[in-house]
């Protein structure tokens, strides 16, 4: 695109189809949660979402490689990705906020502390502690042990920290025109991300079958799997994006001056890594 004019995309069916796919997924999720049935709707909705996203991004890539985008469009993509990551920050901020509220306010209240200490009348024998090994309601069994942060979680922390370094090296290599170096560092980043997911799977198995840390193990189990599970889902999405970037790099889609798709993927991956550092500190260590 030349002349400084702004590219206006042609009428697209993808926004409508993505809305329908998301609606189908949410309906399936609601039916499954309420009635414990129609789980197939979730699978169909998820497949529809992935399909629409793949075809939509395919069109965007084609438009970009056709030279239709100018500097203004590039700024639009950067602002869009920035706002998307900000929304993800708020997403995790809500869950971290819930964790801090439970630990700092709700659990001490049940032990008679603070402005709402009258809550202790519900379970007068309850003693506040975190991790909450003995929930106040005796019908809820707490975990037998907690996950040791200095074993598998520490290994996963090293995986993600190193992956951020290798991805940065890949980005710098791409900017300098060292395509082989960029490719090798990106492959290593993907391998480290997959290793993270494998180790997390082992950790979940150990937690469920040997430590008693389950979704039914009181508020500690619920918050543990809520935070780490959503993060694991984001790592899966991030690794998938990086695999697509590797394919595009192999196809020669990126140049040292034009590679925002790669850069946006790097932003997302670094965000996921930063979130994990917060999880490691406030879910596992403190």
Automatic annotation (TrEMBL):
Highest taxon above the source species: Bacteria
Entry keyword set: Membrane, Translocase, Transmembrane, Transmembrane helix
Pfam families named among the record's database cross-references: COX3
Protein's name in the database: cytochrome-c oxidase
Principal localisation: membrane
Location in the cell: Cell membrane; Membrane
Top-level taxonomy: Bacteria, Pseudomonadati, Pseudomonadota, Gammaproteobacteria, Oceanospirillales
EC assignment: 7.1.1.9
Gene Ontology MF terms: cytochrome-c oxidase activity
Transmembrane domains' residue ranges: 14-35, 40-57, 77-102, 152-170, 182-199, 219-247, 267-285
PANTHER family from the UniProt entry: CYTOCHROME C OXIDASE SUBUNIT 3 (PTHR11403:SF7), CYTOCHROME C OXIDASE SUBUNIT III (PTHR11403)
Parts forming coiled coils: none
Membrane protein topology class: Multi-pass membrane protein
GO terms classed as biological process: aerobic electron transport chain
SUPFAM superfamilies assigned to the protein according to its UniProt record, in alphabetical order: Cytochrome c oxidase subunit III-like
Matches recorded under CDD domains: Cyt_c_Oxidase_III
Primary enzyme class: translocase
Positions of the Heme-copper oxidase subunit III family profile domain: 2-286
An annotated GO cellular component: plasma membrane
Family to which this protein belongs: Belongs to the cytochrome c oxidase subunit 3 family.
């Amino acid at each position: 695109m030349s002349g400084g004019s702004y590219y206006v995309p042609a009428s697209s069916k993808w926004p409508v189809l993505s809305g329908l796919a998301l609606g189908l997924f949410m309906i399936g999720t609601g039916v499954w949660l309420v009635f414990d049935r129609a789980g197939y709707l979730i699978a169909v909705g998820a497949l529809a979402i992935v399909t629409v996203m793949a075809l939509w991004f395919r069109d965007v890539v084609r438009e970009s490689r056709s030279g239709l985008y100018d500097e203004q469009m590039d700024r639009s993509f950067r602002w869009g990705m920035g706002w998307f990551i900000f929304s993800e920050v708020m997403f995790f901020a809500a869950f971290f906020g819930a964790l801090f509220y439970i630990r700092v306010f709700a659990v001490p209240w049940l032990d008679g502390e603070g402005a709402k200490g009258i809550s202790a009348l519900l379970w007068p024998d309850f003693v506040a502690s975190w991790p909450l090994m003995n929930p106040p309601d005796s019908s809820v069994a707490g975990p037998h042990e907690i996950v040791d942060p200095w074993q598998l979680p520490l290994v996963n922390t090293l995986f993600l920290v190193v992956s951020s370094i290798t991805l940065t090296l890949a980005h710098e290599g791409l900017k300098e025109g060292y395509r082989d170096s960029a490719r090798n560092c990106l492959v290593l980043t993907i391998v480290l991300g997959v290793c993270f997911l494998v180790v997390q799977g082992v950790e979940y198995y150990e937690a469920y079958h040997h430590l008693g840390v389950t979704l039914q193990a009181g508020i500690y189990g619920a918050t543990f799997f809520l935070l780490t599970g959503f993060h694991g889902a984001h790592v899966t999405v991030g690794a998938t994006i990086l695999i697509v970037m590797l394919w595009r790099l192999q196809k020669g889609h990126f140049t040292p001056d034009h590679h925002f798709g790669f850069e946006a993927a790097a932003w997302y991956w670094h965000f996921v890594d930063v979130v994990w550092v917060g999880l490691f500190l406030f879910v596992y260590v403190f």
